[in-house]
Amino acid sequence: MKRWKKVLLLILLVVIGAVAALCVWQQDNIKALYTAFTKDETAILQDMEQNKKDLEGALVDHNITVLAPTVEQSQALIDGTARADEVKAEMGLTGGTTAEAEGTEEASSAPQSSQGASSPSGGVSSQAQAEQLINNCVSELYACEVDLMARLGAMKQEAVNLWNSLSPEERTSSKKREIGMDGLDQCYVLEVEIDQTVESILSRYRTELEKLGADTSVLDTLWDYYCNEKNSQKAYYLNKYLN
C-alpha cells in the first residue's frame, strides 16, 4: 500500500507539472520528490542544517545578527502550535513582509561618505550601510519564510477540518485524494507567489546596494539558499507524511 501511494503521488506530481508548463518549477518538485524517496528523515534534516550552516558561513563577513528559523519552529507553525508573530519574536524579528520598504529606506537614508569610510561629521560609512541593508534583507526573507510556514499550517488545518466535517459515508479514498490534490494545487499557487515575493525583495535590496557600489553577490547566495531550503522542506514533509 505504501509503495502504491508513492507511485501514485509521483505520477500525479509529474502530470500537474506538465500541465502547468513551468519546466523549472516541475524540475524542482521532481527533485524534492526524488530526495524524499531516496533519503530518510534524518538525512534530509542534515541537508537542511548544512544549508543553514553554508548560509551562515557566507554571511559571516556581513555581521548578520539574525538566524534562520529552526526545523522545530517550522514544524510548530505547520502543526498550528505556534503563531507567526510568536516565532518572529523568538527570532528577534520585529517586522515582517508588510514592512518591505522600511529596511531599504532606513539604511539608504543614512549619510553616505566616499571610499566606504566614516565621514568627518560622524556619518555612517558605505560599508556599514551595506551591512545594514543585507541584515534587513535577511531578516525580511526569514520573516517571509515564517509567514509561509504559518500559511501552510493554516491550509493543512483547513484540509483536516474539511475531512473531519464529512460523514463516515463520505470519507472515501477518492474524497481523501480529492482533498489532497486540492491542497497540492494550493501549495503550487502559493509557491509561485512566494517565489515572486522573494525575487522582489532581492531585487529591491540589489538596487540599494548598487547605489552604494557594494558587492551584490550575497543576494545570489540568498537566492540559492532559498531554493535549496524550499526543496529540502518539500522533501522533508513529503517523506514525513508518506511514511
Architecture blueprint of SSEs:
Elements: H1 2-20, H2 23-38, H3 41-59, H4 71-79, H5 84-91, H6 100-108, H7 126-165, H8 173-211, H9 217-242
Helix pairs in contact: 1-2, 2-9, 3-9, 4-7, 6-7, 7-8, 8-9
Helix content: over 70%
Largest sheet: none
Q: Strand content of the residues, in percent?
A: under 5%
Give the SSE string: HHHHHHHHH
Taken together, the total number of domains comes to 1
Structure annotation, total helices? 9
General form: elongated
What radius of gyration results from the CA coordinates? 21 Å
Give the averaged pLDDT, no decimals: 77
Euclidean distance between termini CA atoms:
11 Å
Low-pLDDT ranges:
14-25, 96-101, 110-122
Strands, count? 0
Structural class: mainly alpha
Features:
single chain, 243 residues, mainly alpha, 9 helices
Task: Give a brief rundown of this model.
The chain has helices at residues 2-20, 23-38, 41-59, 71-79, 84-91, 100-108, 126-165, 173-211, 217-242.
Please describe what this structure looks like.
The chain has 243 residues and is mostly helical. It has one domain. The chain is built from 9 helices and no strands. It has helices at residues 2-20, 23-38, 41-59, 71-79, 84-91, 100-108, 126-165, 173-211, 217-242. Helix 1 (2-20) runs antiparallel to helix 2 and helix 4 (71-79) runs parallel beside helix 7. The longest helix has 40 residues, at 126-165. It is elongated, with a radius of gyration of 21 Å. The chain starts with a helix and ends with a helix. The relative contact order is 0.16. Mean pLDDT is 77; it is low at 14-25, 96-101 and 110-122.
